Amino acid sequence: MAERRAGAPRGVRSRILDPGDTALAAVLLLPAALLLSLVVLYPVGKLVWTSFTDLSLTSGAPAAFVGIRNFRWMLEDATFRQSLWNTILITLVTVPGALVAGLGLAMLANLPFRVKWPVRLSLLIPWALPLSFAGLIFAWFFHSEYGVVNDILRRLGFEGVIWFNSPRWAMVAVCITIIWKTASFVALILLAGLQTIPRSLYEAADVDGAGRWRQFVEITLPLLRPAIAVALIFRTITALQTFDVPFMMTRGGPGSSTTTLAMYIHQNTVSFLDLGYGSALAVVLFLISMLFTALYLRMIRARG
Amino acid sequence: MSDRSPRVPPLRAIAALVLLVNGLFPAIWILLTSLKSEPELSRTPITYLPEDPTFQNYVTAFSDQPLHLFLFNSFAVATLSTISTLFVSTLAAYALARLNLRFRGVILMAIIGVSTFPLVTLLVPLFEIMRGLGLLNTWAALIIPYTVLSLPVCTLVLAAFFESVPRDLENAAMIDGCTRVGALFRVIVPLSAPGVFTAAILAFVNAWDEFLLALSFNSNPALRTLPVGIQLYQGEFTFPWPVISAALVVGIVPLAILIVLFQERVVSGLMTGGVKG
Lengths: 304, 277
What we know:
The complex is a heterodimer of chains A (304) and B (277). With 304 residues, chain A is mainly α. Chain A contains 13 helices and no strands. Chain A folds into two domains: 1-30, no CATH class; 69-303, Orthogonal Bundle (MetI-like fold). Chain A has helices at residues 2-17, 21-51, 69-76, 78-109, 117-128, 131-141, 148-155, 167-194, 199-207, 212-240, 244-249, 261-271, 275-303. The longest helix of chain A has 32 residues, at 78-109. With 277 residues, chain B is mostly helical. Chain B is built from 13 helices and no strands. Helix content of chain B is 72%, strand content 0%.
């Protein structure tokens, strides 16, 4: 009793100076909550609503509710189908591509170099480079006449490729660029994973006479699985949103052969000012992306 | 072991070469291109090193387009959004790291969920919101979404650093008369300086690199950021590569300086809450 009474005034005083945890937490989290409401929550609601309307900035008419008309249009829209397929193709090619290239880079970077900073730098520069810059730089690499890629091909005795005139080669160039740009990020994530693998495991395997390849398959890969999973999911989500690189390299062409879903959303919204249809397209991309986010959150929760 | 060791240095040398060429060749190639004259560029077979290095392309890059304005806008938008991200995420990170939250898990999941959010899909509603607020063609139209863009990663990085500050130091400050918020800004934030710094660099790079919103929300040429401004050099039928290269170099140099100076911080930050692809 005496203790409690003695503690009471201090408790009151500290409550005046420091509001209780819950109240303080509410105050501290308020700015973040307000921002997220303004930039994410409210827009998502608005997006879903607009996708069921015919809102267009060209007609000037007020938006009318049109039910699922926009979504029905999608089914008959060849450009939508093409852009959806291109997005899936880019994801299917560049995610495993960046993973393999990134794993290679990470293994190389994990060698015991005496001077570490050049290695670090060579992974960080591609990461920091804006995607849009990478698109422009590689467009120059793949230039049909003066590009360094065709120059090397010609020196090796092949014929140069007119990259951006053919749907297939344009897509190849776009995918190579995305793989290059994103492999460094994957490498940085995997490098962190590699550095947590105890050296003693390899030493023990050496004693047992296991070769390099068996060590890679039986020690490195299994212990790297969590890092690989994180890299895979992040890469997939960003691949689904691909915009900058094809926009800078090909403007989606030739035709719409390298147009991604994100580019088609942008085109409908900013160029055609058809906000209703643009929103319906965005809802589709949103749902696909949420699928992978849910997967990611489940993975994190499973790991605690 | 002794029969293997002579083979190791060459392996490491080859590895270093592969890493360096992969990482730096594009930037070096664009630097070399920017130093070549137009006639030298339009010649086959192409030259690798510039025969007669010239800085003319840099002069043209600044005179053809307001490149100094693009730079200024990029700096302003990136710096201001970094400051606002740091402020908001410092408060949120403290709540997550130090307070007994009832919904800590839910809040954490929400923050991580936002970190993977496809901003592209919000182009239409954000455009309308910015128009409604009269913010189109202002820096604020970019600063507000960029703050959200970097909020998750900065919050995660800062929370990790805040957790490592001993509670005794915080308590000592409070005994000396600090409030909790006072202790946050006078003790925890200074002691987490490396973390704050890491978060700042990640936020800055995110904002410096963003393209889609900058392209869509600012139609006024004087407000263009670098990634958007750089495509203005292309004419309808012309593609002045040497000048574009010079402008690209101007846009890469600030990033390169940042990365060279603070590479260790960036790597540790990416490993704590790497988000960008």
